[in-house]
Design goal:
Elements: H1 2-19, E1 21-26, H2 31-44, E2 47-52, H3 55-65, E3 73-76, H4 79-87, E4 91-92, H5 97-102, E5 115-127, E6 151-152, H6 159-172, H7 174-187, H8 196-204, E7 210-214, H9 215-222, H10 227-234, E8 236-239, E9 250-258, H11 264-275, H12 277-287, E10 290-291, H13 300-304, H14 316-320, H15 322-331
Parallel strand pairs: 1-2, 1-3, 6-7
Antiparallel strand pairs: 3-9, 4-9, 5-7, 5-8, 5-9, 5-10
Helix pairs in contact: 2-12, 6-7, 6-15, 7-15, 8-10, 9-10
Bound molecules: fe (iii) ion (FE).
Length: about 325
């Protein structure tokens, strides 16, 4: 009898473990994710527990918790933070033939410590009234005299800007990158404040004429419940810089399995699910992001902005140059 009970309990334990849970530390702050996590739970029976905070907070928390951390995966909105998490020993490699086959090489860590989940381009959003797109060309040109007092962009503490400057360091060297940052500071339409959407709101309000923003925020404004935000999107054009040269800067939102993960099989299913075709379409349709999966096409809205040449740099190189980018911003007086 006892043996029978033990055998039943063991079977139950195996079943529970098979379903179980996956614990997510996420910096993604978009509605698409909630929808996807629910779909994953329904499809697999694996419960998704989410802790949301900024990447820095999550990384500090992982470091403090060490191997006792309940987290199984870390999701960030920029490659720089994933790179840092890897450097700090907070991630472990996930070997997945599926991920390697569907995600382009430059959008994942060479050793499998992290993978891109969505892609975004950092573009120029310009006033349709006051800017002729034929006069736009490169990020570099925005630092020239023609844009004095006309440029809107976030603070340098913004990781999207840090990665943009890191890409310039990688392509053109620290000296030119710093000169660019100083030129941008000269052209500020105002002291940087707010997020990417606020930069476009300021263009619509006439505070400046050009803003540097991530593509999906334009989609968010266009589809906003607020009339005032839809009105902002209507007076703004989208321009992909550096098309004659290295291509427009792109970044990823990505995921890595934590070093402490106790549900590795679930973590793998979760990561592969989010990179799968159905989930990639949700990221594209609900949050206006570019899919990273080669087999999924961008949404109609993104297609309407046109195809563009992407900067093909391996994104891990942006992580390598992050600390230097932060220092150069400081030296250039971009706060
Ligand atoms: Fe964002």
């Amino acid at each position: 009898m006892l043996r029978k009970i033990i055998s039943v309990l063991l079977t139950l334990a195996v079943i529970l473990q098979a379903a179980g849970e996956v614990n997510v530390y996420s910096h993604r702050h978009y509605a698409a994710d909630k929808k996807l996590f629910k779909a994953f739970e329904e499809q697999t029976g694996i419960r998704v527990n989410v802790v949301k905070a900024s990447s820095s907070e999550l990384i500090n928390r992982l470091a403090k918790e060490g191997m006792h951390s309940p987290a199984d995966v870390l999701i960030t909105v920029d490659v720089g933070r994933l790179y840092k998490a890897k450097q700090l020993g907070l991630l472990k490699p996930l070997r997945s033939d599926y991920m390697v086959s569907v995600i382009p090489e430059n959008l994942r860590d060479a050793e499998g410590y992290w993978y891109g989940l969505t892609k975004r381009a950092r573009v120029i959003a310009y006033s349709l009234d006051r800017v002729d797109p034929k006069t736009l060309s490169t990020y570099e040109a925005l630092a020239g005299d023609a844009y004095k007092g006309r440029l809107l962009i976030q603070k340098s503490s913004n990781i999207y800007n840090q990665s943009l400057l890191a890409s310039m360091i990688a392509h053109r060297g620290a000296e030119k990158a710093k000169a660019w940052a100083a030129g941008i500071v000269e052209n500020f339409a105002r002291t940087p404040t707010g997020d990417d959407r606020d930069q476009m709101r300021a263009v619509a309000a006439g505070i400046g004429d050009v803003a540097v923003v991530n593509t999906y925020y334009i989609g968010q404004l266009l589809n906003s419940r607020r009339f005032s935000d839809r009105a902002v999107a209507e007076v703004i054009g989208v321009f992909f810089p550096n098309q004659q040269g290295r291509g427009t800067h792109i970044n990823i939102s990505g995921i890595g399995v934590t070093a402490s993960s106790k549900h590795e099989a679930n973590a793998r299913r979760f990561v592969e699910f989010l990179a799968g075709e159905a989930a990639q379409r949700v990221f594209a349709e609900v949050n206006y992001e570019y899919p990273v999966n080669r087999n999924v096409a961008p949404s109609e809205l993104l297609k309407s902005w046109g195809v563009f040449k992407e900067d093909a740099i391996a994104l891990e190189r942006l992580g390598e140059h992050n600390a230097e980018a932060v220092r150069l911003f400081d030296e250039a007086g971009w706060h």
